[in-house]
Amino acid sequence: MNPNPTHIPFNLPCLTGQETAYFQQCLEKKKFSGDGPFTKKSTDLLCRLIGAERALLTTSCTDALEICALLLDLAPGDEVIVPSFTFVTSASAFALRGAKIVFVEIDPATMNIDPEKAKAAISPRTKAIVIVHYGGVSCDMDAILALAREHDIPVVEDAAQALMAKHKNTYLGTLGDLGCFSFHETKNLQCGEGGALIVNNSKYFERAEILREKGTNRSRFFRGQVDKYTWTDIGSSFLMSDLSAAFLLAQLENAAAITERRLSLWKRYHAALAGLEASGTVQLAKIPDYASPNGHLFYLKLANLLLREKFIAFLAKKNISAVFHYIPLHSSPAGRKCSIFHGSDSHTTIDSERLVRLPIYDAMDASEQGYVIGSVKEFFKF
Questions:
Q1: Cα maximum dimension of the chain
Q2: Is-contact 194 181, C-beta < 8 A?
Q3: Once rounded to an integer, what is the mean pLDDT over residues 147-169?
Q4: Pairing of β 79-83 and β 100-104
Q5: How far, CA to CA in Å, does 318 sit from each of 2, 251, 254, 311, 313?
Q6: Residue 239, phi then psi, degrees to nearest 5
């Protein structure tokens, strides 16, 4: 073990070694914009990996969420239920269409949306439930989908962190009406910036493709289904470039191996720090029986905000980057303007202030992880 590494970053983007060769092929084909040959290969492989019928690569998960908001035909006065502990675009994509965001409480064991709190927030104006699989750990999808069926409300899965994770035997992103993935460089599989929209409800198939193509039927034209293409709907330029899709293909081809390595790192952290939890010093993430995670992130929850600040500062002195995560959106300046928090905030703020993430990345070796584990134990004198 290196006793004093120069620096252990919070994240390093995964590289498989095949990206450069695919870039070169893309350059030789002289097809760089969206929906080229690498877009098709990556799309087809993504569908096979997770059992999806229809996937559309986008420039980001944000764009995928914005397509969802367009597909739902949201209007001012409509309501969308969202957990407050999430990235901003889980809410802003729908607020952009004029919807009122109704934030609800999380289950502190998983940091995922609490289905009972979502149920209590439903009103005649509710047009969608947006769920977030935090850290690649599944929400209680049986409860969420039963609730959605009871009230005939679409479910959007923000699965930005959850590629290759499952609920029971089904891959996340394929359970709701619509699912969204991120391929940002901080994710398990990445292409710098990128995303995907998974369309699971057939009623959205054709329109999703049109919205992604700037509101035109251009894709149908290139398939020879119409003799010319034209503007048919309100959309935008949401297409991932074929250069990005070439990079992504190298990642998707190694999805199983990358996920296995991430899970191995996650399990080592959990086993090594289980004693700290048993002593009551920290809390670790809880993995429900229905969830098969993907090792996206590993977090601890400390006693309070002050202790967390001291812990992060201590690790920084040891050349380790550990970071907190989301500030609850309902407490943000923009959130206060376009949202409400339904019910009481018993866990969202308190638990967000206690949570800290440890470094985890594909290239992390045993000595680096051992140094982090040793430093964590040193702080707690364990």
A1: 72
A2: no
A3: 98
A4: parallel
A5: 12, 32, 33, 11, 9
A6: -75, 135
Query: How far is the C-alpha of 257 from the C-alpha of 150, rounded, in Å?
Result: 39
Please write the tens of the pLDDT for every residue from 213-269: 998 988 777 777 887 788 889 999 999 999 999 999 999 999 999 999 999 999 999
Spatial strand order in the sheet of 155-158: 55-58, 195-199, 178-182, 155-158, 126-132, 79-83, 100-104, 339-341
- What's the average model confidence in pLDDT over 25-35? 87
Residue 41: what residue type? Answer: K
Q: Give the helix ranges, DSSP H, for 103-154.
A: 115-121, 141-151
Question: How is residue 330 annotated by DSSP?
Answer: G
Number of H helices, E strands in the chain: 14, 16
For residues 235 and 213, the answer to whether their CB atoms sit within 8 Å is yes
Q: What is the DSSP pairing of strand 106-107 with strand 112-113? A: antiparallel
According to DSSP H, which parts of 56-127 are helical? 61-71, 89-95, 115-121
Residue 161 backbone dihedrals phi, psi, to 5 degrees: -100, 5
Residue 379, both tokens = 């702080």
Among 57, 22, 3, which Cα is nearest to 318's? 3
146 within 8 A of 118, measured Cβ to Cβ? no
Contacts from 305-311 at CB under 8 Å and sequence distance 24+? 305/353, 305/354, 308/353, 308/354, 308/355, 308/356, 311/356, 311/379
CA angle 13, 15, 16 (to 5 degrees): 155
Residue 2, pLDDT > 80, answer: no
Q: How far apart are CA 310 and CA 327, in angstroms?
A: 18
Instruction: Determine the pLDDT at residue 3.
Output: 55
Mean pLDDT (whole number) for 34-58: 96
Domains of the chain: 1-382 (3.40.640.10)
How does pLDDT run across 295-329, given as a tens digit for each residue? Answer: 999 999 999 999 999 999 999 999 999 999 999 99
Neighbours of 274 (CB within 10 A): 11
CA dist., res. 99 & res. 77, Å (int) = 6
Helix (H, G, I), strand (E, B) or coil at 92: helix
